[in-house]
């Protein structure tokens, strides 16, 4: 039996407002069912829709996290959506990739041994000030986050997160043409 979501539940799942969901319904761009006088959304169909609409073009995406499981999770989600993914287990490794290759987006863990995510972000801003970065953190109120905020605007994705969160971040922050 399919898992059906209400407008409010799909808005929460997609991390958008209910108004955005209604706009998508008006455009006919989100898969939905009309049950009586209410809209319902099959979760599996929403996941497929996210994959198909994440970005029209393939993008080069860098994932920086000291946890191999997190890197593998991002790789699986993003490659399934058609993107090219490079992973780095440290800030130093990430900076080498950024110097050598053009990326459309970087997912960057905030807490890493050695060079912190805030330090990596500061160095990314000197290499490529316009490169979109999404900070991955389980500590949104930490001193490290305050240090990262001093480096300018970026996206934030709080742990724990799911596939929809990753794909929404890509859709929100990616710049076609950098890929």
TrEMBL record:
Pfam families: HTH_17, Response_reg
GO biological process: phosphorelay signal transduction system
Residue span, Response regulatory domain: 60-174
Annotated transmembrane regions: none
Alphabetical keyword list: Phosphoprotein
Domain of life per record: Bacteria
Protein name: DNA binding domain-containing protein, excisionase family
MF terms in GO: DNA binding
Keyword Phosphoprotein found: yes
List of residues that carry 4-aspartylphosphate: 109
Cross-referenced SMART domains: REC (SM00448)
Species in which this protein is naturally found: Dehalogenimonas formicexedens
Family matches, as Gene3D superfamilies: 3.40.50.2300, Winged helix-like DNA-binding domain superfamily/Winged helix DNA-binding domain
Keyword Phosphoprotein: yes
